[in-house]
Amino acid sequence: MRLRVGTRLENILQEGHFAVTVEVGPPRGANPDVMRKKADLLRGCADAFNVTDNQTAVVRMSSLGGAKILLDEGLEPVMQMTVRDRNRIALQSDLLGAWALGLRNCLCISGDHQKAGAQGKLKGHPGAKNVYDVDSIQLISILKNLGDKAVQEGGDSLDEPAPFFIGAAWTPFAPPEDFRVIRLAKKIKAGADFIQTQAVFDVARFKSSMEKAHKMGLTEKAAILAGIIVPKSAGMLRYMNNNVPGVDVPEDLIKRLKSAKDTQTEAVKITIELIEAVRFIPGVKGVHLQAIEAEEMLPEIIKKAGLLPRPKIA
Amino acid sequence: MIIGEWKPIEEIVTMLDKHKNVLLVGCATCMAECSAGGEKEVETLAPLLRMAMKVKGRTINIYTKTLERQCEWEFIEELTPIIPKVEAVLSLACGIGVQAIAERFPEVRVYPGVNTTSLAIREEPGLWAVRCEACGDCMLAETFGLCPIARCAKGLLNGPCGGTRNDGKCEVDENVDCVWKLIVERASACGRIEDLMNIRKAKQWSHSSHGGQKRMLREDLRP
After folding, report:
1. Residue A117: pLDDT above 80?
2. pTM for the complete prediction?
3. Average per-residue pLDDT in chain A?
4. Position B9 in a domain
5. What angle do CA A5, A15, A228 make, to 5 degrees?
6. Burial call A29-57: b when 16+ CB within 10 Å, e when fewer
7. Is residue B106 part of a domain?
8. What is d(CA B206, CA A32) in angstroms, rounded to the nearest whole number?
9. Residue of A133, A171, A183 to mutate for B, most B C-beta atoms under 10 A
10. Do B27 and B105 sit in the same domain of this protein?
11. Which CATH architecture group holds A8-304?
12. Residue of A132, A174, A186 lying closest to B155 (CB–CB)
């Protein structure tokens, strides 16, 4: 089958390899060396490196800037793009700029509401005016048309097409749960090539959501990457279970990490078990790993999960 | 109706600091309905302001009046005899009333005593909730009579974000239902869930305030 865009991530998925992507959070500052250090730490560990767009609505280096630094370091980035802060004019302009700089993977998401920042340890900008001119599904359509038809949302043409390998998010467990797979179908219908899921801890529940997606033929149309967050402590698991919508952590798992002699060793073990468990669920084409502010844990985890070295592509 | 709530007394006192004679004007329509600016609230606020000024060592002469509607010129005319006696007007109307008085009586300063909040319904006694953003491009037919523009924190048009809490509330406010959860439930109850599978294209915000000042012209009603 012909590649649509030709990114490494697209190649890996198309060749049938089990893909590994990891999340790389840009710094709360302008120092490019922070991104370069993360690049050194993670080089070779994943097929693509997902750069977040002001997650939790706290101002950080832009995903476009962060992704470009990774690209210059020889890593393939996935630029995240939220619809919270930019209207369709700014989104499309930044997409064209990103493409011109060599960025080819883009993950389209709604973004955390600006009030989210105020709920954590940081102040954020809860008084900001949000945009939400388009939603994440409409953004996917925009990317699809920039690439396939060289047409802007408003109907004007581009000089030449700007094709991106298009990603979207899926939260299978949040209410209204029966609708979640329909929303996934809409994202794929709009043009999503790959899907990153909300963090999976309850594998049995995830398996049943995957079966629904599989029955609707969605797993054939887009590559679903199971989201896995490295559980750093029992407290973090408890917090996510109680406060992060769509994240469901089984009580046994929280207890297991709490009673572990060495939390970090157990966290690595749990993560590897999760990777192995989702790996053989029909339709799961890879994993998206997040070690929030603990990216140094990822190389060991990926190695021990038997996912290194990453395959070379032709 | 339009809803609003009193500005903090300290803010009002600061606004009125330089004035000795002030007219406090209520509005007997929306702001009376939401208990922010009817006759009752006017007569409650006036002594509170006098006291607050007294604490600061100032005396203030407050006239009070409540109009049927501050957004209609003929009712506003009732203020004409009082205006020469004051340097300032404190209006407890929505922003429309405040601007109408300022336009009719440019010789006095006009201050808002209310923060206008939204177009809302009274859900329960003492509880109002937004229902409309006056976007100028109503899509309630597509969303089973529930407005995601007014009631989704992100104004999403194609279903809920990943932030719906386990109990079905919005991630932004634990007291507010995720409107998309309600839309999905209502669509399911009608047996029309497949209607929500269509991808809703980007909205034309040009019909809302984003398209510049909104005017509505009806030639058939023109003089």
Report:
1. no
2. 0.96
3. 96
4. yes
5. 85
6. eeebebbeebbeebeebbbbbbbbbbbbb
7. yes
8. 40
9. A183
10. yes
11. Alpha-Beta Barrel (3.20)
12. A132
